[in-house]
Each structure stands twice: as C-alpha cells, then as structure tokens.
Amino acid sequence: MTQPTPAQSAKSLLQEYAAEVAKTSAEPGLAAGAAPGRAAPPQPGAAGSNLDMIMRIPVTVKVVLGSATMPVANLTKLGRGAVIPLDRRVGEPVDVVVNGRVVARGEVVVVDEATSRFGISLTEVVGTSGNDKGA
C-alpha cells in the first residue's frame, strides 16, 4: 500500500475541514426563515459550495527556520555581517506555519539554483489534537 503524498494529505485535511464546517453550520438550524428548534432544510450542493468557498480563502504560510532570544542591548549592536545563532541545527526539520498554526514539517530544498530560490519538501503533515478541535 502506498503512502499518500503530503499534497494529498493536505487536500484531504481541507476536505475534512470543509465537511466539519458544513456540518456545524447546519447544526444551529436557524437559517433565514427556519423556525427555532427545527433544522433548516438541506440545500443542494451546499457542501460542495462550502468547499469551493474554503479553497478560495487566502492564508499566510510561513516557514520557521528557527528562533533566537537575546537582550535588546545585543540586538542594538548587530550590524551587517552579524550572525544570529538559531535554536535549530542544520538538517533538522523546519515548521510550516499557516495562519499562526504549525500544519507540517519539512526540509529546505533548492528549487532554482539560478535564482537562489528555496522551497520546502514536506516530510510530515501535523494533525490536529483533540484540544484544537474546539478552537
């Protein structure tokens, strides 16, 4: 049996999220014109349109190479050529953060040597914990 690629895993996570959004939006049952206490009738294609709507939402993706803590006095002494040691080592996975939440980890790769562009090869897609589902 083959492992799903990181892109397939991310797509399935988005589809799961869209299904949850569709399910929770139907739970209150107070859509326009619905009587209190009665669920609104399901609209045809509502789950598909929710997924389409979610797929168009722009998100901010950041790759965290590492971090450092230092006193302001040291920060003011930094100049061109200064090196700030980070808390990660060469070869350690980097975090992929979407809208402030770690969603994956991966390795830095060179995408285009001519333009010195880097990318991330995903090695792990991070699932949600039981505590995150209510947030």
Write the layout of secondary structure elements.
Blueprint: H1 6-26, H2 46-55, E1 61-64, H3 72-76, E2 94-98, E3 101-112, E4 117-125
Antiparallel strand pairs: 1-2, 2-3, 3-4
Structural notes for this entry:
This protein has helices at residues 6-26, 46-55, 72-76, and strands at 61-64, 94-98, 101-112, 117-125. It is of the alpha+beta class. A four-stranded antiparallel beta sheet has the order 1-2-3-4. β3 (101-112) and β4 (117-125) form a beta hairpin. α1 crosses α2. It is elongated and about 55 Å long. The model is unreliable at 25-39 (pLDDT under 50).
Summarize the structure.
This protein has about 140 residues and is an alpha+beta fold.
For this entry, give a set of tags.
135 residues, alpha+beta, four-stranded antiparallel beta sheet, 27% helix
